From TrEMBL:
Superkingdom, taxonomy of origin: Bacteria
Gene3D superfamilies, alphabetized: inner membrane protein cigr
UniProt name for this protein: Excinuclease ABC subunit A
Source organism per UniProt: Meridianimarinicoccus aquatilis
C-alpha cells in the first residue's frame, strides 16, 4: 500500500530537498543571517560559543549565550532562543 504524499510536506518549487529541511527553509546557510533579526528565534543549526571571552566578545547576562551561524554571532536568550543582538563580521576572529 502506497501512501505517497500523505502527511508529507512538499518542498517549495525550485527548492533543493536539503535546503527545504533547514530551520529557515530554502535559504542557504550563508544567507540565513540576512533574514534573521533581533526578536527572531535562533534556528537549531546555530553553534554555541561556550568560551566567548576567548574571542574577545563582551560578557553576556546570566541567562544569555552566544551562537554562531556562518560569519554572524548572535547573543541569544537561553530559555526562549530569542535573538537579542547580532554581531556582524566576526568570521575572521572565529576562524
Amino acid at each position: 500500500m502506497c501512501l505517497s504524499g500523505a502527511g508529507a510536506k512538499a518542498a517549495p518549487k525550485g527548492c533543493p530537498p536539503g535546503l527545504a529541511k533547514k530551520a529557515v527553509p530554502c535559504v542557504p546557510p550563508g544567507q540565513v543571517k540576512q533574514s534573521l533579526r533581533v526578536g527572531d528565534k535562533l534556528p537549531s543549526d546555530g553553534i554555541l560559543l561556550d568560551q566567548p571571552d576567548r574571542y574577545g566578545l563582551p560578557r553576556v547576562g546570566q541567562n544569555e549565550s552566544y551562537y554562531r551561524i556562518g560569519d554572524t554571532v548572535f547573543r541569544v536568550d537561553r530559555d526562549t532562543r530569542e535573538i537579542l543582538q547580532l554581531l556582524e563580521a566576526v568570521g575572521a576572529v572565529l576562524n
